[in-house]
Design a protein that fits this description.
This protein is mostly beta strands. It has helices at 4-16, 18-23, and strands at 30-34, 37-41, 45-53, 61-67, 74-78, 81-83, 86-93, 101-111, 114-125, 131-138, 141-147, 154-160, 171-177, 184-189, 198-202. The protein contains 2 helices and 15 strands. The strands form 4 sheets. It has a 5-stranded mixed β-sheet with strand order 2-9-8-4-6, with no helix packed on it. The radius of gyration is 26 Å and the shape is rod-shaped.
Length: 204
């Protein structure tokens, strides 16, 4: 059974749109994103939780979008719309070229021609730089490991015997992948070893 009030509001929405419902004192829906701000290294991603409320109990289908994204960034919602009250996960993915800065994003919900927004902050900082945390040497075997890489990203290991050699002339001796936590391990077998060898990590 449909209550007379709900039927009236539904008919009003169908005839004149969602703004007409709100013009007579009802709230079609509310939207809220949390947390209020997120920080991300350029080239990585971060998430917000978007919560929709349905005070009129009209089960409106609210389509979700976001504006104000920085250059090189993209956004996706899961799900892309919410019926009535519910939640959606907003994921924002940046690229390594996304400029470091503070950005103001508007998370937008739209139904029946009516939109409501909730503003959140999005802070992009420079890409994280891998760092070697342990070096081991045993006979002809060199091992080193570290962290702070891009999760599942590629890195190259370069080497040279001449530290003064331009970087573009160093030899690429391995192409590896950071693990899901951004950690890495490398083992180099070389026999016989030169008197002195220099190594460097390079990102694509």
């Amino acid at each position: 059974e449909v209550a007379p009030q709900s039927l009236y509001l539904e008919q009003l929405k169908e005839r004149l749109g969602g703004a007409a419902v709100e013009n007579i004192g009802y709230t079609m829906f509310s939207i809220f994103a949390s947390p209020s701000s997120q920080t991300v290294n350029a080239g990585s991603s971060n998430n917000y939780t978007v919560t929709l409320d349905d005070p009129t109990l009209m089960s409106n289908v609210v389509e979700l979008s976001v504006s104000g994204l920085p250059p090189g960034a993209s956004a996706s919602f899961n799900p892309a719309s919410v019926t009535g009250a519910g939640m959606s996960a907003l994921t924002i993915v940046t690229s390594t070229s996304t400029p470091a800065n503070h950005y103001a994003l508007d998370v937008i919900g739209t139904t029946a021609g009516l939109s409501h927004t909730n503003a959140v902050g999005f802070v992009v900082v420079p890409p994280s730089q891998p760092r070697i945390t342990r070096v081991g040497w045993s006979g002809p075997t060199l091992t080193f490991s570290g962290t702070n890489g891009r999760a599942d990203g590629t890195y190259y290991v370069l080497s040279t015997t001449d530290l003064a050699l331009p970087r573009n002339q160093w030899s690429v001796i391995a192409t590896n992948i950071f693990d899901s936590e951004g950690d890495f391990n490398f083992t180099n077998l070389s026999a016989p070893l030169p008197t002195q060898m220099f190594y460097m990590l390079k990102l694509p």
